[in-house]
Amino acid sequence: MFFSCYFRYFRKNWFTFSGEAADILTKEEYYFKLYNPTLNINPKASSSLGFKHSETSKNLIAEFRKGKPLSNETKKKLSELFSGELNPFWSKKHNSDSLDKMKIAKQGKLNPM
To answer: Around Cβ 32, how many Cβ atoms within 10 Å?
Structure first.
């Protein structure tokens, strides 16, 4: 976040760091703790761990993505991510109530099942 803001808005006005990326992130974390800026939305430098989107943000993201197809590469990665034991429904079965609801929902439609 710091880097994107720095390069976008304040490059000429802010002091610069020299050194390795790890040193820069350490200094960024130090200044986040020191000043507690409202600009920063993530609790830790260089990580979005712990950040929770609001329902409004989730709806905006969903609306933005609506109608945009996934690339073949993305489809392949998602397929690998949820294959086999990594699938959340792995080794589970639908109960009879759920099966009945699905059957009723599909009745009257062109469906090979």
So the answer is: 18
Let me know: does 40 contact 46? Beta carbons within 8 Å.
Answer: no
Whole-number Å distance between alpha carbons of 32 and 54:
22
Residue 14 tokens read as 């802010």
Residue 99: alpha-carbon gap to chain centroid = 32
pTM of the model: 0.35
pLDDT of residue 113: 59
Per-residue CA distances from 66 to 6, 17, 113 (Å):
31, 41, 29
| CA distance to 21, 44, 53, 97, per residue, from 49 (Å) | 19, 7, 11, 38
> Which CA distances in Å does 12 have to 8, 91, 109?
10, 58, 64
